[in-house]
């Protein structure tokens, strides 16, 4: 059983919402110890590096991490720290659940969708990125492998089986992207045949977006390649009230990093306005992953009760309270 985890407070709203999640983990009596390390802009300002060796070593040692959003400076040729972390630790599966809570600003009720996004290949593999000297042409390469497709599809079906889910939808664009998306779809059909008890569906990504907005209740587990998964999971967050409600787990064979789906939200950073629910929900995912299902359920109940009662709601939830008040409302329910 894990007791020491790595914590990356991150940039922008990160430190405030991660601190909220840590207070809640402690109040719930999860018995965790923390190694705090830096990454992103805050690491660059302190250590001159976006991803210091010490951070990588600590992540490697503890294997489990809770992470705030990181700002990747634009320009200057910096590659995304999130993409680097996912590739470095082989965090091939990005699991992004969205669940309706009453009392949010969401247009829908009863949503319960998990997006399983391939996290290391595709358009985000970082390969072949060039811009011509005169700036008139740019290229980037998308690479998917049979093994990478098999791994993510098996992961999605195993998750569906474990959680008693009914349907897995493989999202693709094989009609146009015949090689890359075509390979993903071919493997999806092979893997689907191994799970006859689960309904399998295939859907083209643009149509998927339309159907998610029209009839989200028809979806259960979505599995897809990296870029489509990035976009679709934000769309799904919008179905349940916005990015403040959407957690994500980055899972590999030996390591896992739990975080919010959203970024560092510079527009509201330092103003005590952020909804910490996304990172609290990521902490719940983390507890489930490390075998603390009871504590995960207690925290989820406290969070659900806070949101559904409208107690000390943040602005994105339709209230007028800040991060600290909302966090206290959740803490009060864990006494
Ligand atoms: P963002 O996700 O930070 O913000 C988008 C919108 O959602 C903003 O209006 C923001 O105020 C709102 N929002 C986000 N989280 C919220 C919360 N917890 N409560 C209330 N409102 C919330 O996306 P943006 O502005 O495109 O990116 C900002 C920075 O974050 C960039 O540097 C980007 O690279 C980075 N980023 C990092 C990610 C990560 O570390 N996993 C993921 C996505 C972006
Ligand atoms: Mg994204």
TrEMBL record:
Enzyme's top EC category: oxidoreductase
UniProt-listed Pfam families: Iso_dh
InterPro entries: IsoCit/isopropylmalate_DH_CS, IsoPropMal-DH-like_dom
GO molecular function, one term: NAD binding
Keywords tagged on the record: Oxidoreductase
Record domain Isopropylmalate dehydrogenase-like: where: 4-330
Enzyme Commission designation: 1.1.1.41
Example GO BP: tricarboxylic acid cycle
Chain segments annotated as coiled-coil in the UniProt record: none
Gene3D superfamilies tied to this protein: Isopropylmalate Dehydrogenase
Recorded family membership: Belongs to the isocitrate and isopropylmalate dehydrogenases family.
Name assigned to this protein: Isocitrate dehydrogenase
Source species of the chain: Aliidiomarina taiwanensis
Top-level taxonomy: Bacteria, Pseudomonadati, Pseudomonadota, Gammaproteobacteria, Alteromonadales
